[in-house]
Specification:
Length: 247
């Protein structure tokens, strides 16, 4: 079991939804958290304030992680602020759902850039610091859509499936170093993204979930903590948190 007290984590897209839940759960376990956001500073600062209220440390950094220069800035600011880096949670993601016939090149490239290329960008600059840690962790938040596909989501599915292949390959490369690399594949989680789905479609989705409910963001966050704390011998894996929807 790793001692997480005073470790440092970066959570990309950490200001809302699953990312905010992960940020707060890490903080509850004594981890100093760098909350990355792209555009809505007020949400990031709200999470920072909530973390400080429980007696932990947090710091918000604006960066568009789909841009490699911004990703470098994020890692540098995090390390300069807290003095190191132990955990990288690649959570930033967006959707641009359309059937393939209606999908523009911009829709394709934007989703691939934010969901997949960002993982390369952040890891490139974070890895030297993670290799110096005694508890180095890379956790990539993929999706059930990357495993099973989704209608109108060829771009999103490709990006999330790419994260899984990336996770396995990097885990092989880093296994001897002690840095573990894993993916979490959430099912349908009750976030803004799912809440935006029309009610009739939401009902049809829930009907297909064996547990007959959407997951909660904190249930994904607990998976992250498990991999951080007890995941010394777990690498290259997919942790499926989906209520039994995909097995």
């Amino acid at each position: 079991m790793a001692d997480l007290n005073n470790k440092v984590a970066i959570v990309t897209g950490g200001s809302r939804g699953i990312g905010a839940a992960i940020s707060k759960e890490l903080a509850k376990n004594g981890i100093k958290v760098v909350i990355n956001y792209n555009s809505r500073s007020e949400l990031a600062e709200k999470v920072v304030a909530e973390i400080k209220e429980i007696g932990s440390e947090a710091y918000a950094v604006q960066a568009d992680v789909s841009n490699i220069a911004d990703a470098e800035k994020l890692i540098k600011e995090a390390v300069n602020h807290f003095g190191g880096l132990d955990i990288l949670v690649n959570n930033a993601g967006i959707t641009r759902d359309k059937s393939f016939k209606k999908l523009s090149e911009e829709d394709w490239r934007t989703v691939i850039d934010v969901n997949l290329n960002s993982v390369y960008n952040t890891t490139s600059f974070a890895l030297p610091h993670l290799l110096e840690s005694d508890a180095g962790r890379i956790i990539n938040i993929s999706s059930i859509i990357g495993q099973a596909g989704g209608f109108g989501q060829t771009n999103y599915a490709a990006a999330k499936a790419g994260m899984i292949g990336y996770t396995k390959s990097l885990a092989l490369e880093l296994a001897k170093s002690g840095v573990t690399v894993n993916a979490i594949a959430p099912g349908f989680i009750d976030t803004e993204m799912v809440q935006a789905i029309p009610e009739n479609i939401r009902e049809s989705i829930v009907a297909k979930v064996p547990q007959r409910r959407f997951g909660q963001p904190n249930e994904i966050a607990k998976g992250v903590i498990y991999l951080c704390k007890d995941g010394d011998y777990i690498t290259g894996q997919q942790l499926n948190i989906n209520g039994g929807l995909y097995m």
